[in-house]
Amino acid sequence: MMKEPSLPEPIDSRFTRFDNVDTVSFSYLPMWFIVQTDIHKEQESKDLLMTLDGVRDVYLPLYRKAIKGSDGSVRYRFSPTVSGILFVNIDEEKIRTLITEWGYFKYKIDACVDGSRVPVKRTVYSTIRLLCFSPKETPVETIIRRARISNEDYERFRVYNDQLVNSIEDLKILDLSYQQLEADNDTVVITEGPYIGFEGIIRQVKTKGKKDRRLFFRIGNWCACISNVRTYRHIVVREAVRGMKAETVNAWRHIDHLTGRLQATFFPDDASAMLRKVLKGLRRNSSISQYLTTLKSSDNLHAFLSGIDNISEGCLISLSRYFQSGDKTLDSALQDMIPDTSLRPFLTPTPGMMPPSDNDYSVLCHNGFIEIIHKADLRRYFWTDKYEKEKYSPLTLEYKKIESGNRGTERVVTENIAIPDEDYLYYAHIGLFPESSNGIVAIVNWGGFCHQYTMLTADDRAKFHNDLKTKGYDRLHQLLEEAAQGTDLRFISFSPSVGGFAINIPDVTLADVTDPMDIKSVADAVHTLIERCSPTAVEMWQGTRLLSWRQLLQRYVLLHKIPVASRESVIPVNPELEQVFSADNIDSGCNKISQLLKPYIQEVERRLAIGNYRIASILFLQIMQTLTRHFIRDEHYNHIQDTYSPDSDCTHIYDLLLTNANKGNVDKTDIKYLIKGMKELRLTLSFISYGFPSCLAKSKQLEKSLNGIPSLMVTA
Q1: Which one of 147, 210, 601, 708 is least enclosed by Cβ atoms within 10 Å?
Q2: DSSP helix/strand/coil, 343
Q3: Cα-Cα-Cα-Cα dihedral sign, residues 7, 9, 11, 16
Q4: 3-state secondary structure of 291
Q5: Could you tell me if 207 and 213 are in contact, meaning their C-beta atoms sit under 8 angstroms apart?
Q6: What is the pTM of this model?
Q7: Using an 8 Å Cβ cutoff, are 447 and 494 in contact?
Q8: What is the mean pLDDT of residues 529-533?
Q9: Contact, 692 vs 628, CB < 8 A?
Q10: How far is CA 547 from the centre of its chain?
């Protein structure tokens, strides 16, 4: 019997983020490559490349350059946007016959040799080569891979160039990895000026003694940059995931997740103290198991740690590594990072106490107040009118159903079902506190942000309001002004760790809200706080000015989710499958690989037969993950004839999984896991550029099964 797939563990591979992947090109032979040639020889090189067999197209990016004459007249000419750079579309299967081992293009000419008058074909080596900054130290296969760019990157560069032909100052391609740059820096989108909609990294560089703010963006495996973008407004769309700053933000996320889990089980009011105790205990013990031996079995903390899930365990391990300090400073660091507070930040990625499946909220009773944990879809707050509004529009599925009408007639009714996007699903935490007068007050916790604001003097507060207005934080400025007037909304501080925007609810007591299924008496206040404060929090998170205030918001108000591009894979690596997809097993149509996959397919069928849908899904995703990796690495696209057998195997397994899901007897969490894994695989180069595994194009059928929509009734 085959070994049972292991539970998901982090892997080193990262996935490139592409938005709105709905259509896929199945044209897998022609690919774009970046080519470097001598400066001032760009047009000559383009003409030569167009004569080579296998070259489909050559793009020479140009811009319109003004030249002033001595008499003051102005004339124009078109010059290469990037000196010595071309983009070439070549049949992938022929490129190896066109280049040398160092990536230089070669061609044949008719020439007479040894005094003969009869011309013969002679190979000539050009100075045109695939872009590589150290070709003599790089294998030819690596040169080809690094020079290759996706159609999306090519189209993006072409749009950039075409839009900026009259305003561009400096555009360069650099020997930098954009993936590494993206991991270390926040990703931004420019929202005004000629660069509107451009996404990348903004960094300050010094050239000839002058400071210059440049926009760096991806171009294949390289990095391009545009000069002088400091004057244009931009917003953050993804946070950095590496470096000291990212480590701190991740620590905040881990602390919030564990605090929520502790509150939801045994410690609604002293979760912070318990978390500090656990981290100090782990400091003295090598593992959670060893630490458990020091606790009494009747202790609630023992019960919590004994039943901890994989995610929570990972958070604990990460935090124990983060707090690698001596005993003298550990207490101070823990108290600073995990202060005593029962009300969590306003918006967090995790709920703690999960709302029931048929409800949007849960109720958690604390000592002296009640917490409402309400789902909040922030998708519509992350766009502006100028920035790709459609990217954040709600996802819907359209399906048809038959309804009975009068006198036995039937009609087809079309309905749209909203599909929540987990990337924008947050949980709002609203505290309900008793007021000294008759009633209660509902508050969203802005914690340290609120504390810092209330400590400002009147003059400093007026200056802060003016800074908000002049630097584009219109929502927060308006909300604070309204709170200062004290109409229906006010800004209050209960303690250094609890404070924020609040609404009074008269004639209601905490006893009226203890029923977890009935919050009608406070529903209006809860929704008002979420609707009015959420866009303000997003605005501050997206801002790139007033950075000290943004950091306070990151920690105490909006704990942003980890970017999709940098999230650890939910699919565990299967070493056995690596052997199945070995390059030694490649033949026509990859039929041998398909034969070796049969035991794995049989194992999936066996798991489904005994009702183990999760293990069947893991094995299916492992097969497809391995396929996508080797499809590119071992160039399976060169071995496809009429069929590609491993793809047919994946489609067969997918159909089995979908059939079982449609029967309605599969746990929804297992379907959600499968959907998440397939979404991850939709972001691989194998699917983006070649359309394999092809069953990923049908993965939305699983979402319809998850929502109870019969797949046969769903329209395309």
Answers
A1: 210
A2: coil
A3: positive
A4: helix
A5: no
A6: 0.68
A7: no
A8: 94
A9: yes
A10: 23
Task: Return the pLDDT at 536.
Answer: 94
Angle formed by the axes of helices 244-265 and 327-337, nearest 10°: 70
Q: Report the alpha-carbon distance of residue 637 to residue 615 in Å, rounded.
A: 30
Residue 30's DSSP bridge partners are: 91
Instruction: Report the distance separating Cα 651 and Cα 696, nearest Å.
Output: 9
Instruction: Answer yes or no: are the C-beta atoms of 286 and 277 closer than 8 Å.
Output: no
Q: What are phi and psi of 433, to 5 degrees?
A: -115, 145
Is the CA virtual torsion 11, 12, 17, 20 positive or negative?
Answer: negative
Alpha helices in 266-367 (DSSP H): 271-284, 288-292, 300-306, 310-322, 327-337
Q: How far is CA 689 from CA 54, 193, 566, 686, in A?
A: 19, 32, 20, 6
Closest CA to 304 of 292, 314, 319: 292
Q: Which two tokens stand for residue 31?
A: 């690919």
Pure H helices in 50-164: 95-98, 140-147, 151-163
Query: Which tokens go with 707?
Result: 């929502």
* Bridge partner residues of 413 (DSSP): 401
Residue 528 is encoded by which pair of tokens? 């008002």
Choose the weakest-confidence range: 81-95, 295-309, 652-666, 692-706. Answer: 692-706
pLDDT at 638: 77
Cα separation, 688 vs 245, whole angstroms: 32
Q: How many CB atoms lie within 10 A of CB 139?
A: 11
**8 A C-beta contact, residue 92 and residue 151:** no
Total residue count of the chain as it appears in this document: 716
Q: Are strands 30-36 and 148-149 parallel, antiparallel or unpaired?
A: antiparallel
Distance from the Cα of residue 593 to its chain's centroid? 32
